[in-house]
């Protein structure tokens, strides 16, 4: 690791206890239930993805079939759903699966704080432990990062992700399930619009490590929206979802994510390690083929 154990992540100019001011979203957060409105013409200039996004906090434990019946007014939907092959519902994480969040964060930290870290230094995806500081200090730095150009324009996409998802879209329903905070919902949607336009029907936020608001576990979100599989890089989230009966593709990009390593000797029938988007595609198509077989 490039940093010494004695260095703190907050320089002297930030040493005094400062109020933690949350980032102000550019637009009001979208408040929606987990089953969202059908496709409609654009209203009020809001983009399709933005209108169809959802806060995970507002999701309720509801049957997708019964919820759709309520929206569409009748039982015809439920009858049709049982007469056609079931599509695999795939939940996709954002950071380190679609985009290189830590890579951009490290550039910000070096520029603003003189902290010199590499992705290979992150043996756990808990920044306070890597930066040798308190959780409050870590949260403060990350929220400063949210206000920077490094976050707004500097997060590169993961190679192969867009092309693979574009192919999978024909046989799967794609949604985003991210632990990102509600306060950066609009910025996240804008980033997805730039790099993954037209691929995701819904976006859900877990609001983890936030300065304000409650958080929600990814396993709860995935169960609420009836996701069959989650693509995620976090071992903790993977274990939690697998224990909840959700299949997980644990994404360890080219074996370069230290935090994505399972404990030695550990295995779970619902967790499969994948190292690139080619492996993701093969695994998802295999699951989709099984799901499409009439029961």
Automatic annotation (TrEMBL):
Annotated organism of origin: Tetradesmus obliquus
An example Gene Ontology molecular-function term: 5'-nucleotidase activity
Protein name from the UniProt record: Uncharacterized protein
Signal peptide as annotated in the record: none
Top-level division of the source organism's lineage: Eukaryota
PANTHER family reported for this sequence: NUCLEOTIDASE YQFW-RELATED (PTHR35134:SF2)
Active site (UniProt): 93, 95
GO-annotated biological processes: deoxyribonucleotide catabolic process
Gene3D superfamilies the UniProt entry points to: HAD superfamily/HAD-like (3.40.50.1000)
């Amino acid at each position: 690791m490039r940093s010494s154990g004695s260095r703190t992540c907050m320089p002297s100019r930030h040493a005094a206890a400062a109020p933690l001011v949350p980032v102000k979203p550019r637009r009001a957060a979208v408040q929606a239930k987990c089953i969202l409105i059908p496709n409609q013409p654009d209203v009020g200039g809001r983009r399709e993805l933005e209108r169809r996004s959802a806060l995970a906090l507002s999701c309720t434990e509801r049957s997708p079939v019964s919820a759709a019946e309520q929206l569409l007014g009748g039982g015809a939907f439920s009858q049709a759903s049982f007469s056609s092959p079931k599509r695999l519902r795939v939940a996709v994480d954002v950071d380190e699966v679609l985009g290189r969040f830590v890579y951009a964060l490290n550039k910000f930290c070096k520029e603003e704080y003189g902290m010199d870290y590499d992705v290979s230094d992150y043996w756990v995806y808990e920044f306070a432990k890597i930066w040798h500081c308190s959780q409050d200090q870590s949260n403060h730095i990350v929220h400063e990062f949210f206000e920077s150009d490094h976050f707004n324009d500097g997060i590169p996409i993961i190679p192969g992700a867009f092309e693979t998802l574009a192919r999978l879209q024909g046989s799967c329903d794609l949604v985003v399930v991210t632990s990102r905070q509600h306060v950066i919902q609009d910025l996240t949607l804008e980033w997805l619009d730039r790099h993954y336009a037209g691929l995701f029907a819904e976006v859900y936020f877990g609001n983890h490590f936030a300065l304000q608001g409650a958080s929600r576990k990814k396993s709860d979100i995935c169960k609420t929206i009836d996701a069959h599989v989650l693509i995620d890089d976090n071992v903790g989230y993977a274990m939690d979802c697998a224990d909840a009966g959700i299949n997980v593709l644990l994404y360890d990009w080219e074996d370069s994510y230290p935090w994505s390593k399972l404990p030695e000797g550990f295995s779970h029938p619902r967790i499969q390690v994948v190292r690139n988007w080619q492996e993701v595609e093969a695994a998802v198509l295999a699951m989709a083929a099984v799901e499409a077989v009439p029961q």
